């Protein structure tokens, strides 16, 4: 074996070993047990070792060198991150999305890769495979956002030297063209909704543009019918259940267990300042809400001791909060029964925004009604407020009057 020359403390050493290969050792820090962290590389030639040593030194000096210890796979890191880190610091809805992406897609699909050897091409190939197997581009895009956040945390903690998800190309999303409902379609929906229980729920959606979570979280102490306004302060959360069947398992999923137990709070406070807002009520809607309250009072009397007195404006027949999933299916049935083209529940919000545009409501008032952040309000108006045939006809008439009016219509 070639004798090594002693280097100053902390300096790299390069030497040729008895195996005929060249070796390099670089001190990069202190290990968790307090001993020096010395990284080793071996190559066939001295030049290759020198290059590898210099690369380690650069990463060490720039703070981009991965930590010693456990060699994470992508799967083990994602599970640790989502259950031990993200769960403590993000909202329930955000966590639910992360957890599904990790459990359903990332761990079984690409989790076997070594975390420190993951490349952007691995992620891009995985996204393409997801879509070939039937996942929508939006699903793959959501998965990309999740792994990007997880790898950012891994880099922050020194487990990887770079975030390859920031380099990988996310799946392309085609902007979905939304056609708001016409006044005639809205009238057909309102007529059909008047036959339903909680009919005011759909008037609130189409006239005020409330998000689903905002509408389902409304409570009567948020509504002042005498003054003619309501306050948006909460968002309904999607229910999550656990089994309550104990020693006699029912064999069903938790949500279908006959003795299921709710493990998530029903709502959360609206977090953004713009989301917490006051919205004026049109007179017809005030009358409709008064009638709705009277009907709910009758239901309370009929339900007796079974009534859950939680103060919600829109409730189940026994006073409990409405499930977002049930609410969605009622919307779909409403569209079919009204003979109106199919659309997302969120399209009702697009419709309300477009009506405000048609009415010429000033932008600052529109932003306040819709709950848009000041910094992104212009972008949201462009996305939600659609140019309609009525508006185009009005502009065409104005142009015609300006250009040809003096010719007496000829």
TrEMBL record:
UniProt xrefs under SUPFAM superfamilies: DNA breaking-rejoining enzymes
Q: Which residues form the Tyr recombinase domain?
A: 176-397
Q: Does the keyword Plastid apply?
A: no
| Keywords per UniProt | DNA integration, DNA recombination, DNA-binding
Question: Could you tell me which Pfam families the record lists for this protein?
Answer: Phage_int_SAM_3, Phage_integrase
Q: Which residues form the Core-binding (CB) domain?
A: 72-155
- Gene3D superfamilies listed in its UniProt record: 1.10.150.130, Intergrase catalytic core
Q: Which InterPro entries match?
A: CB, DNA_brk_join_enz, Integrase-like_cat_sf, Integrase_catalytic, Integrase_recombinase_N, Integrase_SAM-like_N, Tyrosine_recombinase_XerCD
Q: Which PANTHER family match?
A: INTA PROTEIN (PTHR30349:SF91), PHAGE INTEGRASE-RELATED (PTHR30349)
Name-wise, this protein is Site-specific integrase
Q: Which organism is it from?
A: Streptomyces glomeratus
């Amino acid at each position: 074996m070639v004798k090594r020359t002693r280097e100053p403390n902390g300096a790299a050493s390069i030497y040729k070993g008895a195996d005929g290969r060249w070796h390099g050792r670089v001190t990069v820090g202190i290990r968790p047990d307090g001993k020096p962290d010395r990284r080793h590389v071996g190559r066939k030639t001295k030049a290759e070792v020198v290059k590898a040593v210099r690369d380690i030194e650069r990463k060490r000096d720039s703070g981009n060198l991965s930590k010693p210890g456990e060699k994470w796979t992508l799967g083990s890191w994602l599970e640790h991150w989502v259950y031990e880190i993200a769960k403590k610091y993000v909202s329930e809805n955000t966590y639910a999305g992360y957890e599904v992406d990790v459990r359903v897609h990332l761990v079984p699909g690409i989790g076997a890769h070594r975390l420190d050897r993951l490349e952007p091409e691995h992620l891009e190939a995985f996204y393409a495979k997801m879509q070939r197997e039937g996942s929508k581009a939006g699903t793959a895009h959501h998965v990309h956002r999740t792994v990007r956040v997880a790898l950012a945390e891994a880099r922050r903690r020194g487990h990887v030297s770079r975030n390859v998800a920031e380099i990988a190309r996310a799946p392309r999303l085609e902007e979905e063209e939304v056609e708001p409902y016409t006044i005639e379609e809205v009238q057909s929906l309102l007529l059909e909704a008047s036959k339903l229980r909680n009919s005011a729920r759909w008037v609130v959606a189409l006239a005020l543009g409330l998000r689903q979570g905002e509408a389902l979280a409304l409570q009567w102490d948020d509504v002042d019918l005498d003054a003619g306004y309501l306050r948006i302060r909460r968002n309904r959360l999607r229910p999550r259940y656990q089994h309550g069947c104990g020693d006699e398992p029912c064999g069903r999923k938790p949500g279908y267990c006959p003795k299921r137990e709710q493990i998530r709070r029903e709502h959360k406070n609206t977090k953004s300042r713009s989301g917490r807002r006051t919205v004026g009520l049109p007179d017809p809607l005030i009358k409709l809400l008064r009638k709705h309250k009277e009907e709910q009072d009758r239901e309370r009397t009929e339900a007796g001791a079974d009534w859950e007195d939680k103060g919600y404006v829109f409730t189940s027949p026994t006073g409990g909060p409405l499930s977002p999933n049930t609410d969605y299916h009622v919307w779909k049935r409403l569209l079919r029964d009204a003979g109106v083209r199919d659309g997302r529940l969120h399209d009702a919000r697009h419709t309300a925004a477009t009506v405000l545009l048609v009415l010429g409501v000033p932008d600052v008032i529109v932003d306040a009604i819709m709950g848009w952040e000041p910094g992104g309000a212009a972008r949201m108006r462009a996305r939600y407020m659609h140019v309609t045939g009525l508006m185009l006809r009005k502009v065409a008439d104005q142009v015609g009057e300006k250009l040809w009016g003096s010719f007496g219509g000829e």
